[in-house]
Write a structure and sequence with these properties.
96 residues; alpha+beta; four-stranded antiparallel β-sheet; elongated
Amino acid sequence: MFEHLYDEAEQANVNFIGCISERARYDFSIIYSKHFFGKPLVVCMQTGRSGVVGVEDLDNVDYIQNMFHITDSKIGEDLAALLKLRISGVGMTDQY
């Protein structure tokens, strides 16, 4: 049985970014919401893999690589650096 937790609609800000490496192209959407403690939802448009990513998560390249199934550490570092430029700590909130 499901217990209904919430059902909310909101206007969300969405940022689309694309990048290319020597081996692959990456297109991401970054969805800023009031949910998830103010952390944005990052979605890889090619694979559909997604995760809630905060600024502190971007210092952990292994976490980013695992989230998006990236095996090349250099690409993981570059992606983390790119996301750091787009994701800020502004809007982080206590949710509960």
